[in-house]
Amino acid sequence: MKDIEIPDQLYEQYLSGTGLASYLLYHWIPANADPLGPDNILGFMSGLLTGAGSLFTGRWMVVGKSPLTGGWGDANCGGQLSPEIKHCGYDGIFFKNISPKPVYLYINQQVRELIDASDLWGKDTVETEKTLWERHTYKKNKPQVACIGPAGEKLSLISGVSNDLGRMAARGGLGAVMGSKKLKAIVLSGDQPIIPYDKDEMNRLSKKSSKWILFQPPFVSGPATSYLGALMRVLPTQLAQDGMLYKILLRRWGTVSMNQMSIEMGDSPVKNWMGSSVDWDASKSIGVNPDVFTNAEIVKYHCYSCPLGCGGICKMSGKYKETHKPEYESVICLGALCMNEDADSIFYMNEVLNRAGMDTISAGHALAFAIECYEKGIITDADTGGIKMTWGNTDGIVAMLHKMVDREGFGDVLADGVKVASQKIGKNSKEFAIHAGGQELAAHDGRNDPGFAVHYSLDPTPGRHTIGSQLYYEMYQLWKEIKGLPKAPLLYHKNHKYLADEEKAKIGAACSKYMNVLNAIGACLFGALTGIKRVPFFAWINAATGWNKTPEEYMEIGERIQVLKQAFNVKHGIEPKHNFVTPRALGVPAQTEGANKGRTVLIDKLSSDYWEQFGFDRETGKPKPESIKKFSIDEPLRITD
Ligand code: SF4
Fold it and tell me: 31-188: CATH homologous superfamily?
């Protein structure tokens, strides 16, 4: 084990979190390294602002080469882990090579050591964390733990890393990287203070911001949201969304607030991306009603430094008594995507997946894919071991989920995601294996908001909803702080969303740059959606560091990180154009009914325009020599490692 000092200049160029990690891993991981081999490097990063007194800045990031996509991989999660990395005296902790036996890393004020984890191997994430709490709690100081469950141990390419008893940094298959290194957990218990440059200014900014966050009018019932969604579906025009409305919904219900509204307005995928609200009456479906989820909530759950608290702990009957409130993505992927209306089964599968350490988004897609294979006769009872994989058959869906988690029978075929499964199954099943560059799409439909399709297809970690969209851009309101960015019109015709023009390219690039800054400082997307004037991340960075950078300079840092991550992918043999979303989810062919009827995303034009914004080749997406030079990407590593 060794410590590496990072020069201040690198913090100024990459901040911390995924920004700094992208710089280090670009240099450290050799081209063509096997993601599950000794040369891959797995990192756990805190954010630049974590612990400095700002709001919404307690997220931690896991980073490495993704075994799911073969390119840059990062996933982030809230909870309480991120400040503990800093209390231990670090901004990031990295692992390389492979341990001959299972281990966990333990750091406290006196020691840092790798401890035999043979007795923990095979335990689920909740059991593991509770065991490690018991073992390492001193004088009521409970350590913070990040760990994998059996899915990561079994190298499932859709496995993630858990903390806080089942909150998941789920995407990109980085749980399998941890499993490949035989690293079961990290256990952190530090006491080093985190001191911002200007504490008074941090407090002033946070106090002002929290007034916005805590404003909360009384609210209507869950099903009413579906009527709002239906209205948005039928109107030819759209109002620019102010993030305060979403903030209010989040505080009331959490992310499940969007379930019914999103299905109605064409944002949620239904029936493996071939259905719509015509197939699924959101207003009547108990399986997705937000009230069902909040009625089961025992207590609200807040991540570190978050006054909003969109999470919750829910009670449930049966084998498990409690689970984290399922997120919107989980409900849609385990519900509408599979036509499963049974809310109890969604609570249950959410907990099974969290304990296994498997991504609910990817798992839901794998189940929906298996159903379509079965319904089309591509697979039969002989393949599934007699499990009837039909639309909406809850028993079959749950039974197959268990097989997937255990890597048994046909579940083993599904456990590495839909791209790998379709390669094994063949028979044109790739046409309905819905992914981008190997990663299953999140539950926001690019046919409703082409911005999602752009970021699913073009981000160096494809398939994620947490980068940007036209809707996010409206809510970020970046034009209020950053010169030269287009202002979202208050009212616009919906057809405007489908034009591929320079404005869309600027919007897409701005979302990517801003998200790179957010992931470098440990910020939560939901905080950012409240709007830059209400949640002032740039001002917080200046107050925490003593820098005096402009918003434009921070966006340039975001651009530098994007170029580096793209260069990482090219270095590792990824052709950016090959990450495009499966045609069905781009509206090829276009749907014939529902909210997205007749819509096709013009992905070729949108991607060329977007790449142009970053100085990437318009045809291939590869960074041009000028953009590599501009950001000194190919200079030798500027630290002694
Ligand atoms: S808004 Fe939700 S996810 Fe974001 S920091 Fe707060 S509790 Fe965590």
Answer: Aldehyde ferredoxin oxidoreductase, N-terminal domain (3.60.9.10)
